[in-house]
Amino acid sequence: MEEFSQQPGMVERISYQQSLLQEELIHTRAKLCDITTEVERAWGEYEGLENELYLLRASCDLVSRCGDPQEQVGARRQLRMTEDVMFGLRGNKRSFQTAIGAITQPGIGEVASGLCAEEQS
Q: What is the per-residue DSSP string for 85-108?
């Protein structure tokens, strides 16, 4: 800034631009924190639903083997549908984990976590 001190108004413009950039950085950090929190919440919900699917699959499997004949037919149909859903989710889970990995990679995730901690204090 010293090199611009002889140019009228230049120091003020540089200071103003610097304050605008700092304000934008604060807003960007807040958005990143919100997005990180939302991703973590969504991942927790996803894992909970996945666990419910595993429980449903286990109970359908049990009924398909041990229930009365009518229950076995319905349980087998439900078991096939559940397995189809689980198969479809596997690919999405990998994509989701890749996306989360991009957020939580060393450096990036630490920055995001640090930002959230700074925002809360």
A: HHHHHHHHHHHHHHHHHHHHSTTH
pTM, 2 dp = 0.62
The per-residue pLDDT for range 82-118, each reduced to its tens digit, is 999 988 888 777 777 787 777 666 555 455 555 566 6
Q: Is 117 a domain residue?
A: no
Which domain range does residue 41 map to?
16-102
Total H helices, total E strands in the chain: 3, 0
Residue 50 is assigned to a structural domain of this protein: yes
Report if residue 9 sits inside a domain.
no
At 36-58, the pLDDT tens digits run 899 889 888 988 999 999 999 99
**Short-list 91, 49, 45, CA closest to 57:** 49
Q: Is residue 113 part of a domain?
A: no
Number of domains in the chain: 1
* CA gap 4, 11 in Å, rounded: 6
CA trace torsion 86, 91, 95, 97 (10° rounding): 50
